[in-house]
Amino acid sequence: MLEVYTWEPNANSGKPLLTLKEKGVEFDYHFIDMGKREQHSPEYVAINPNGTVPTVIHDGFKMFESSPAMEYIDEVFDGPSLRPSEPWQRARMRWWMRYIDEYMNPCLAMQAGTMFGRRGPEMSEQELEEAAERVPLPERRKVWRLIMSRQGATDAEVAESQRRVGAAIREFERALGEYPYLAGPTYSLADIDAMTTLHSWPLSREDVSEALTPNLWAWLRRCHARPGIKAAFALGRFIGPRMGEVREKLGLPD
Amino acid sequence: MLELYHWEPTANSGEVLILLHEKGLDYAGRYIDVLKGEQFSPAFLEVNRFGQVPVLVHDGHTITETGIILQYLEETFGEVCLTPESAQDRYWAEVWIKYVNEYMAPAAWKLGVSKAKPAPLPADVLARAPIERQQAWAKTAEGFSDDELEFAKGLLPVRLERMEAALASSDWLAGPTYSLADIAVYPTAAILPALTPDLVNAEATPRVLAWLERMASRPAVKAALAEARTPDPKAAFAPGPEGGRWG
């Protein structure tokens, strides 16, 4: 029995969804609405005491860390292997997963969280405190306090995050000029990890285009052409309906 | 041939040195004095443009990032096997590597440099460093505020509790046998009793202390420590990975 508690096929939430669809593994998808902060609800925290998504439960074995869970899924279930067999390519795959998870994604989360917080709904001091108190991990509680207090990060921090995302785009462009996929010649968990974040960049980022970032653009087209990717994004309530437009921009048939 | 660019056998470099000794592998050590800024020399930046140690060079491949080097060595030289047997325990080995990278090591160096501040690097040396490294050195020179140190320290208790929980049912962190997880966590955990005695002590974390002793008695750990060039490598601190930029 395989259960996935998660939000949309986006960022960390999307990692098990894209991996499982790529391998063609059946699972139960329990939608956790981050817009309603359901990941901090007592019911969900009873399942995952970190109050983070995703949670993957396989025959009673619970996993809360999304990238290690992707490796577990690839190892345990049938379907195409999503980790290269050459150790140096695996190292490259893990380097990218780490770079995405620890360098780029926190910058994007800081930008998005700050934007969301600054235009977010007004909350009373008490409501804010109650919402923050429900966040189990102290480091995440601090970030939620910043977001919900309508401040977010400072302008200087946001600007530095933007600079880092620019650096990451150059890093993608360089790596994808060396090989067609991030880990090397074959599609791997690193590409899946990247796609959970980059999926809509053809629509949302002016600094990503066929002219400016040809290698990244070609890679986005290759990834979006995969049936596993299409099936995973179709699960998205908010993201799913936009994917036709992304594919059109990339010149892919819908 | 295996070539390892490393600093003192503490924190990140310590993990790889211990693993090489566990596996009995010959390697050419290239000592990089991080406190002198040798990781930002033009020659080293040719090896790793991110200006960080350790770096493993093997068969024409350059492998960076400590946890990834551990996994590369394990997958390439499997004779002495340090991979847990079950898929569940292998998941946990990955998680421990992640806990060290994202929470424990970033907390430890910030607390460490606040206690033993490294001398600032000459401006011309630092100017060659990647921007993120320049930021970390500048922040170290400026000093961390009480709030920042409290936040860094706050990353530790959850992970220490999980260590205690794991060590309640086994002598080792990821399942019944000694593995990469123990090697990944040890060099960072070993400095905590001195750095955060209120969090790591006989009352709060008895199992962690017993595990630290088990680890310290291993010949490979002793051999790695013997490579130290400073009198007390556990007290050598340098600006490290940022960690937790946005939760």
Brief digest:
Chain A is an alpha+beta fold.
Q: Which features does this protein show?
A:
heterodimer, A: 254 residues, alpha+beta, 4 strands, globular, B: 247 residues, 12 helices, 53% helix
How would you sum up this structure, described in words?
The complex is a heterodimer of chains A (254) and B (247). Chain A is α+β, with helices and mostly antiparallel strands. Chain A is 57% helix and 6% strand. Chain A contains twelve helices and four strands. Chain A has a four-stranded mixed beta sheet, covered by helices on one side. The longest helix of chain A has 33 residues, at 87-119. The two termini of chain A are 33 Å apart. With 247 residues, chain B is of the alpha+beta class. In chain B, strands 2-1-3-4 form a four-stranded mixed beta sheet, covered by helices on one side. The longest helix of chain B is centred in the middle third of the chain and has 29 residues, at 87-115. The model of chain B has no long low-confidence stretch (mean pLDDT 96). Chain A binds chain B through residues 61, 63, 65, 67-69, 71-72, 75-76, 87-88, 90-91, 94-95, 98, 102, 106-107, 109-110, 113, 137-140, 142-144, 153, 161, 163-164, and chain B through 59, 61, 63-65, 67-69, 71-72, 75-76, 87-88, 90-91, 94-95, 98, 101-103, 131-132, 151, 154-155, 158, 241, 243-247.
